[in-house]
Amino acid sequence: MPNKALEQLTSKQEGLAICWLGNLSWVLRADGLTIAFDLDLESKERLAPSPIPTAELGRALDIHFITHQHGDHFNGATTKILVEVSECLFVVPANCLERARSYGIPDHRIHVARPFEPFQIMGLSMEPKRAFHGHTDFSVYRGASE
Fold first, then answer.
1. Is pLDDT above 60 for 145?
2. Is 134 helix (H, G, I), strand (E, B) or coil?
3. Which of 24, 51, 48 is nearest to 36 (CA)?
4. CA distances, 130 to each of 14, 109, 116, 143, 144 (Å)
5. What value does the mean pLDDT take over residues 29-34?
6. CA atoms within 13 A on the CB side of 55
7. DSSP per residue, 115-131
């Protein structure tokens, strides 16, 4: 039986469709592409399973953007499933390149994003910005967006 949430998302032909998958994981559909951000779908810490199972999402996914190396943003178990069942491209910060390779992502599916270096991917124009990740006592975690 097809996943209803995925079916609704991918059937969107005009405009924007967006779905929150829990934690910091988002998937959207726009311009005929299915794009995800920070998929953390296989974490043992999840309080509930993702409304769209990783393998099903992977078969529809075109691009997965990773914001930084923390496991709840760049989840190894989720990534390994996506590598196996999907042909999606992975956009990662430069400091996540080795981690991406360690998860088995082939180099031809990896695009390294660097702050203030625009690029094109699958017909989309991207302009990466430096992100600042919150940390304890209102400080900034420096390693989050290298």
1. no
2. strand
3. 24
4. 30, 22, 8, 11, 9
5. 92
6. 2
7. TT--EEETTEEE-----
Q: How many whole angstroms separate alpha carbon 125 and alpha carbon 134?
A: 27
Q: How far apart, in whole angstroms, are the C-alpha atoms of residue 107 and residue 129?
A: 23
Specify whether the backbone of 133 is left (phi greater than 0), alpha (psi in -120 to 50) or beta.
Answer: beta
Q: How far apart are the first and last CA of the chain?
A: 42
In angstroms, the CA 122 to CA 62 distance is 8
pLDDT in tens, 3-30: 888 888 888 778 899 999 988 899 999 9
pLDDT digits (tens, 9 = 90+) for 40-70: 999 888 888 899 999 999 999 999 999 888 7
pLDDT at 136: 62
Structure tokens at 123: 């017909």
What would you report as the CA-atom Rg of the chain, rounded to the nearest whole angstrom? Answer: 15
Give the tokens for residue 105: 């992502």
